[in-house]
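Model it.
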Amino acid sequence: MAKPLQQEYDPNPVPSNLDDLPRFLFEELERIKTALYAQPVAMTVILNETITVSTVPNWQRLFDTGTPPSWEVPGGNFDPATGEWTCPQDGLYQHFVDMRIQPYGTGNKSYYAGIRLWKVPADGGPTEVVEAVDSGVDDFELAVTLPVQAFAQAGDIFYCEGTVVHDQFIGDATIDASWQLNRVSG
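Modeled.
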């Protein structure tokens, strides 16, 4: 007997208790979950904001202005209100943090900028920090980059800080910053 071309789709309601799922459906959802975890983790956050310039280092949290990531797989691990990213799975991660400071003055005075990447381990171990700095004169753009490759466990929290220090002046400077990360192996 030939099957009709159109079949009516009438699914059962999804049970609220996972133990009530039919075995084949539970196994299929487990396979989907495993396949999603096998996919690489990646994120890119880009922002343009002002940062306080002072004559002494004044570290300020970056990426906490509420700007959501332009790319995040799987989603929901970056908190734009705090600028913190929570690692969803164990693995080796590459972080690339970049901060560019627009020309701040015209006096050919020295200034420098720094960025930090903080790691707060989920297991309560000691907090780790990696830092990069660069210097120049205030009538040229200054760029600082921080490439980091490190192992992270699920639940570890990462965030970035930046500072701009000038020889003589205080005030605000415009920065362009980006934070890119990618899980490279499990």
